[in-house]
Amino acid sequence: MAKQRILVVDDEEDILELLKYNLSREGYATDCVTSGEEGLRVAERAPPDLMILDLMLPGMDGLEVCRKLKGGDRTRQVPIVMLTAKGEEADIVAGLELGADDYITKPFSPRVLAARIKAVLRRRDESAPDAEAAVHVGDLSVDPVRHEVLVKGKPVELTYTEFQILHFLARGPGRVFTRYQIVDGAQGGDVVVTDRSVDVHMVSLRRKLSSCGQYIQTVRGVGYRFKDA
Question: What is the C-alpha separation between 145 and 67, in angstroms, rounded?
Fold first, then answer.
């Protein structure tokens, strides 16, 4: 079986050496580049299985690289893990809103990074979202074809928006979504909504789902995720 290929974009040579060594030990084929422009060219020519992307790069920064990748037909499905010294809440939110799958701050543990990479790749391979597929987690079942939600086998009445939000979250277990990602994913980008209204929907969902409300987790300062059971 061919090795999964990871593209690392970072302008610090010591970081590149550390990542290449540790990722090779984990069984990945690793390509390293030192600029955003070069990373974009390599990814467009041969999309990797995953990209590790620094934010503070010479020339084109990591956010712009992420934006261009997610806007490209060949590269929009490439998972992106941002690895950067920029750990402010606004930076994390910006990265996630552009489509990054995870965000890790420097200094970092190579073992933790390897675990997060495996989790992102597993979600991509095993949780490929089928818009028509039912989702079953513990006592919760969400069926978009029947537009039905069951908790311990009993139906739960949700509004249209609540159902869309729940199904969107449940299709990406473990992934953190900002409030506006939830709005775009669940209702479409043409719906005008505030952060506060998303929070209200979450409160209502948790209440209606009873014991299964715990599957919806708040990530303080960022947004929400559905528990990766």
Answer: 32
User: pLDDT for 69-109, tens place per residue?
Assistant: 988 888 988 999 999 888 788 888 888 888 888 889 888 89
Count Cα neighbours of 98 within 13 Å in the Cβ-side half-sphere: 25
Beta-strand runs (E) in 56-170 = 80-84, 102-105, 135-137, 140-143, 148-151, 154-155
The C-alpha atoms of residue 14 and residue 88 are separated, in whole angstroms, by: 23
Residue burial 40-73, b: 16+ Cβ < 10 Å; e: rest: bebbeeebbbbbbbbbebeebbbbbbbebbeeee
Q: What is the pLDDT of residues 34-49, one digit of tens each?
A: 999 999 999 999 999 9
DSSP 8-state code for residue 82: E
Q: Which two tokens stand for residue 202?
A: 């979450």
Question: Cα 9 to chain center, whole Å?
Answer: 18
Domains of the chain, CATH where assigned: 5-126 (3.40.50.2300), 135-226 (1.10.10.10)
Query: Rg of the chain over CA atoms, in angstroms?
Result: 19
pLDDT in tens, 165-220: 999 899 888 888 888 778 777 764 444 445 567 888 899 999 999 999 999 999 88
Buried b (16+ CB within 10 A) or exposed e, 78-97: bbbbbbbebeeeebbbbbbb
3-class DSSP state of 132: coil
